[in-house]
Amino acid sequence: MPDIQKQEGQPGIAKAALFGLCPQCGAKTLFAGPARFSERCSSCGLDFSAFNVGDGPAALLTLVIGALIIIFALILDSAVRPPFWVHVVIWVPVTIAMTVYALRVSKAALLAAEHYNRAHEAGRDDVL
């Protein structure tokens, strides 16, 4: 396991993920859209497109957030019995907001972890 030493000005993985910070310089330049990375950091020039985060977190987040929304909706329904349209008005925006924010945080955490661990795709030189 490589010895990971955080350099001056680098935010931790959690801080970079929660606030969309560049893992190298700490500038708030990681995202260009709600859950889309910028091409590169406008402050230090780190190329975000070189990292392979993918959509791995999306499936897990969909399952977890879906389960939470169903639990909360059932609790609300058993407590007050609102009409169906109230559920739609409440849970559709909450689901969208939770999914986008969780996807944003999880993708940023994966990118920051790749940067700190100097992760890269295996090649011929990496074979034992």
From TrEMBL:
UniProt KW keywords: Membrane, Transmembrane, Transmembrane helix
Transmembrane segments: 58-76, 82-103
Name listed for the protein in its UniProt record: DUF983 domain-containing protein
Species assigned in the record: Sphingorhabdus lacus
